[in-house]
Amino acid sequence: MNINLDVELVEQEEATKLVLSGEIDAYTAPILKESLLPLTQQEGAEIIVDLEKVNYMDSTGLGVFISALKSSKEYSSSLKLVHLQDRVHRLFKITSLDSIITIDTTVRGGN
Fold first, then answer.
1. Is residue 3 pLDDT above 70, yes or no?
2. Cross-strand partners of 23
3. Right CATH number for 5-103 from 3.40.190.10, 3.30.750.24, 3.40.50.300, 3.40.50.720?
């Protein structure tokens, strides 16, 4: 089984979109962190993370998003997660991170 994470950066007029596909775990979280944190460190930037094609995430991934949230507050940028599959969204709900991270509540399929 090939465990990987693909990261695509899409520059939009109003925001920078990070489109992720694959799995976010202890092996791939550093790739996410390397891609996401510098975006949050741009003063006033708007970052949208598209998780539609992420079918698995563990606590390591949550840690990266917590770091990104702290960084975005420090640099007055905004961070929004969109298109979460149900199992990934559940992880944010169980840990109550959905109350501090902006998440588009339109939950996509998956278990």
1. no
2. 56
3. 3.30.750.24
